[in-house]
Write a structure and sequence with these properties.
Layout (H helix, E strand, L loop, with lengths): L3 E9 L3 E6 L2 E6 L11 E11 L2 E7 L2 H11 L6 H10 L2 H9 L3 H7 L4 H15 L7 H11 L4 H9 L8 H11 L2
Antiparallel strand pairs: 1-2, 1-4, 2-3, 4-5
Length: 181
């Protein structure tokens, strides 16, 4: 099992990056590869998946994100692409909070999971995640964006563009509105 990779970033794509390790260019699938700079040295915590058509390496900036990704994989019917998609739409902390509070609407509206998948995730992970602080601010901002005429997809995308450092409903709403223009 490859648990970590360190090397020079050769290229960055929408869903993956290529990292040079000992002269080899290794593709690593990531939820946010745009955070890496081409030419920079990086170190990623990784998860190796064996599929029928080959191996896939998934990378994460910190080991805690990788561990949460692996926890999501324990949910029956959830594969690595779904787990990566979930982490692309919300931070680990927000997801842990939503799961521990059994916040179905956050997982369906903000994260974009189907109702059955979200329910399954809540049932199978709530006890494993434990209590976490969770704010319903993003849920409220999402509802406001939809009320203003955004499609659910546009509202999710606008929320994803808001930095975690922006706090409060009004500030997050303003940042989401400005990211959509």
């Amino acid at each position: 099992m490859i648990r970590q990779i360190r090397g020079k970033v050769l290229s960055v794509g929408p869903t993956s990056t290529v990292i040079e390790v000992a002269g080899f260019g290794i593709e690593v699938r990531m939820s946010a590869p745009e955070a890496l700079a081409v030419g920079a040295e990086t170190s990623l915590a990784t998860h190796l998946t064996l599929k029928q058509d080959g191996l896939e390496l998934y990378g994460f900036p910190i080991a805690a994100d990788r561990d949460f990704f692996e926890l999501i994989l324990t949910v029956s019917g959830v594969g690595p692409k779904t787990a990566q998609g979930v982490l692309r739409r919300a931070t680990r902390d927000a997801l842990e909070g939503a799961i521990s509070k059994r916040d179905l609407s956050y997982l369906t509206k903000v994260v974009g999971l189907g109702k059955k998948s979200a329910e399954k995730m809540l049932v199978e992970l709530a006890d494993k995640v434990g209590p976490r602080a969770h704010s319903s601010v993003d849920g409220e901002v999402f509802d406001t964006l939809v009320a203003l005429g955004y499609t659910e997809r546009e509202a999710r995308k606008a929320l994803q563009a808001v930095p975690e450092s922006v706090n409060g409903k009004e500030a997050r709403l303003k940042a989401a509105l400005s990211s959509g223009s």
